[in-house]
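User: I'll paste a sequence; please echo it back and then give the predicted structure.

Assistant: Echoing your sequence first, then the prediction.
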Amino acid sequence: MSTPSTERREPSNDPQISVIMGVFNREQFLRDAIESLLGQSFAGFEAILVDDCSTDRSPEILAEYARRDSRLVVITSKVNQGIARSLNLAIARARAPYLAVMDSDDVALPDRLETELKFFQAHQDFVLVGSHVKLIDFRGGKIAAEVDLPTDHRDIDDALLGSGWPIIHPTIMMRASIVRAIGGYNEEFRSNVDHEIFLRLAEKGKLANLGDVLLSYRVHHRAMTAQRTSLDHCFVQQAIREACTRRALPYPPDVRPRNRGLSFHQIYWRTGVRGVPQLAGLLLRSPRAFWGQLSLTLRRSTRIKKLLRVRTRFSQK
């Protein structure tokens, strides 16, 4: 556990970097994440921290640090809205020309912001830069596994179109003007919002990964296999399809139009009511591809509800 800093810092009138962070029930790790920001070698930043209706002590921790350092701005959501909405709220409040994403359970190395800012200042044609990471477990201990990421734009973009994981989201810094120009994060995506925005950013400029390790990336037990769930895969496939359509490219071999209906069906059953806005968006964009699957999904849903009502009547007798 980090020892909280006690010196109060005043905000910069013109911050160069806006750190954006979504927070949901991260009391165990939140102090370490914030302390790693306050210990940065580059001090000319602000941090927009959005609490997404946490039910633990995260709001109290955020308020404590905001009182101590006025570079930290806390936004509180009254209902849980998801990471895309949280980051968009932070972007709307951000004042700096560069946006640095930070997760509430990771630890930034002291020179992270300074190193990424210098890269942007020397490379005007890039819109996003990430870095390599050190993997840590939930206790903060180092995990021996290595993460080998592509550094060249072409390799990164090819990996994104191939369902790969070439960029680690909480390492990135982006040009704020470009992020706003493309509309920020896609709130229709409840999962893999990073993959979707990376593909759109790649259409506006170059992406890069630095060879430097600039973040300790916390890997939780359930994520140790680094495998996507079925729902994750559905959203990644949808992001790739939309990117191929925008770029007039053929779909990759493992991404076909026929998979759209399957994605629709899986999203419905795995997200329930929470997935309705996403499903509506998919239907509006591709009505012919999805209508048959929607009808099938609704028929199955109706049958199951009837069965449940019958079982309920028998159980009450």
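Confidence is low (pLDDT under 50) at residues 222-227, 258-274, 288-317. The CA atoms of residues 50 and 75 lie 5 Å apart.
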